[in-house]
Write a structure and sequence with these properties.
mainly alpha
């Protein structure tokens, strides 16, 4: 039985990123809510979502570049 180490590494990276985001949102927003209240927590949530937009755009660009290069190399 062979192991696909690239797939394993990719899966591990996705899990680490997802876990980090969950901790950031749950713990971060939870602490803001605990110390400052609901209004501040909603503002913090909005700021986190706005802060993620550049990261998502960069990820989409890399995904698009990967798709284009795979398509160009296969033909």
């Amino acid at each position: 039985m062979s192991r696909d180490l690239r797939k394993y590494a990719q899966q591990t990276n996705i899990r680490l990123i997802a876990g980090g985001l969950i901790v950031l949102f749950v713990v971060g927003i939870g602490l803001i809510y605990f110390f400052y209240g609901q209004g501040a927590a909603l503002t913090g949530l909005l700021c986190l979502f706005v802060g993620l937009i550049p990261l998502i755009l960069i990820w989409l660009m890399f995904y698009l570049l990967e798709f284009i290069t795979k398509r160009a190399n296969s033909g």
